[in-house]
Amino acid sequence: MVEGYVAFERELAVMVARGCDGQARLYPVVETVQRNHICHQVYAPADVSPDVAERAAMIAHAAVEALGLHGAAGVELFLDADGAIKINELAPRVHNSGHYTIEACVTSQFENAVRAALGLPLGDTSFLAPAAAMVNLLGARDGPARPEGLARALAMPGAHVHSYGKRRARSGRKMGHVTALGATLDEATTTARRAAACIAM
Question: What is each CA distance from 8 to 3, 53, 82, 88, in whole angstroms?
Fold first, then answer.
């Protein structure tokens, strides 16, 4: 396998829900921030032009259609400096880049995955607030999982904390996430980051 170097400007992602009858619902295009190949933050919606958002959604939808996937699928994309969009990864399942949908959208990716599996109509994927931000909670050490600071994080207005209940922590392992909604992306991001900073995994 030979891979070319991609000088991307930012990383985008689109969750696509698709039923067995071919009906599809797309979630808004989001921006993901990766560090050491691990997703740290998700900004929803992505701060991109309407043209970029439309093209990213079309590419994601076309990829899921081409593979005949059903349920929920996450499509990760590179946005190049010249405006080109390339598929980076396609995950045929509910995906970390779509966990924000639990609080931020009318119908979460999880609910739509179940609806698709049962042959039920897919739910509305639109936002419940102008913006949302998600910060992943990563393990800081290797050993038994002992989350600390949950009470302080949960006391922060607007912060939604999710712990995955994993028994062991590992440095860099995803142990949970925090989502916050806001009138602006800056507001949502500030709340999510502050709450996440309270928690040690």
Answer: 14, 16, 9, 11
The number of beta carbons lying within 10 Å of the beta carbon of residue 2 is 3
Contact by Cβ (8 Å): 48, 57? no
pTM score of the predicted model: 0.92
Q: What does the alpha-carbon distance between residue 147 and residue 200 come to, in Å, rounded to a whole number?
A: 6
The pLDDT, as a whole number, for residue 163 is: 94
Q: pLDDT at position 145, please? A: 84
Q: How far apart are CA 15 and CA 23, in angstroms?
A: 14
Instruction: Single out the residue of 63, 58, 13, 67 nearest to residue 39, CA to CA.
Output: 13
51/179 Cα distance (integer angstroms): 27
CB atoms under 10 Å from CB of 178, counted, come to 27
- Gap between the Cα atoms of 15 and 57, Å rounded: 9
- Distance, in Å, from the CA atom of 126 to the CA atom of 46, rounded to the nearest integer, reads 14
75: Cβ contacts below 8 Å, ≥ 6 apart: 13, 14, 15, 16, 59, 60, 63, 64, 87, 89, 90, 91
User: Taking the chain (201 residues) in consecutive chunks of 10 residues, what is each chunk's mean pLDDT?
Assistant: 78 97 96 89 97 98 96 97 93 96 98 96 97 95 86 95 92 94 97 96 83
